[in-house]
DNA sequence: ACCGACCTTACCGTTAAAGATAAATTACCT
DNA sequence: AGGTAATTTATCTTTAACGGTAAGGTCGGT
């Protein structure tokens, strides 16, 4: 469960990065120079084969001039205020 | 430039995680069980001493039932609107 | 066909994330 | 004060991110 969801997260995030980069007419090599991240590493991230660190994601977002949130696929089931979760909550006793 | 900004990013992100966890009355040990991430690792992340991977951040966001964007500090200089490309920016003349 | 720009994949070395455990520290109680 | 929970820090091992380089692959253009 975790594994497939995480693969999808990485794939979707990579997709968003690639779309954003392509929309700006940047090549991997250009983005590599802008971010300091090598082009092979960027390729792996964009194809969902690598699990980037937060600072890596931040450097990409900075270079593409979008917030990190624009790159992180949001498939966790939560989006806006409070989506009622399909599964059991934990004991959040003093919450509310 | 990158270094200080990244430290601040990690510190701010960790702070948001801690605030969200505390607001739900969860201990590090409880969050560790929910995420599969060890309590020492969570402590390092919350105190900004570790650079978490995207899937790690995602597991934390899932357990806290907030989107990843709620945890990632947004100090990249860009705000909210996902600019659909004004496209006259980006002076990459020196690159290319 | 060749060419050139772009992307992918594979290998290697360095570095750091992450789990486990234990120890030390701090906070919060009565 | 003592006691307990919570958190931090330290050490170790395994795993993977990342850069570098080189090789392979794809596509469009002349």
Walk me through this protein's architecture.
The structure is a homodimer of 96-residue chains. Chain A is an all-alpha fold and 96 residues long. Chain A has a single domain, classed as lambda repressor-like DNA-binding domains (434 Repressor (Amino-terminal Domain)). The first copy, chain A, has four helices and no strands. The first copy, chain A, has helices spanning 2-23, 28-35, 39-46, 54-64. In chain A, α2 (28-35) packs across α3 (39-46). Chain A is globular and about 30 Å long. Chain A starts with a helix and ends in a 32-residue tail after the last helix. The interface between A and B is large, with 39 and 43 residues.
Enumerate how many helices of chain A there are, as a single number.
4
Amount of helix of chain A:
40-55%
Secondary-structure element pattern of chain A, one letter each: HHHH
Mean pLDDT of chain A: 82
Please tally the β strands of chain A and state the result: 0
State the shape of chain A: globular
Which CATH architecture of chain A is right?
Orthogonal Bundle
Radius of gyration of chain A over all CA atoms, rounded: 16 Å
β-strand percent of chain A reads: under 5%
CATH top level label of chain A = Mainly Alpha
């Amino acid at each position: 469960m975790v594994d497939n969801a995480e693969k999808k997260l990485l794939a979707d995030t990579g997709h968003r990065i690639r779309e954003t980069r392509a929309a700006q007419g940047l090549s991997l090599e250009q983005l590599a120079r802008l971010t300091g991240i090598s082009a092979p590493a960027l390729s792996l991230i964009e194809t969902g084969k690598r699990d980037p660190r937060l600072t890596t994601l931040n450097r990409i977002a900075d270079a593409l001039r979008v917030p990190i949130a624009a790159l992180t696929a949001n498939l966790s089931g939560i989006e806006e205020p409070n989506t009622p979760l399909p599964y059991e909550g934990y004991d959040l006793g003093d919450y509310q």
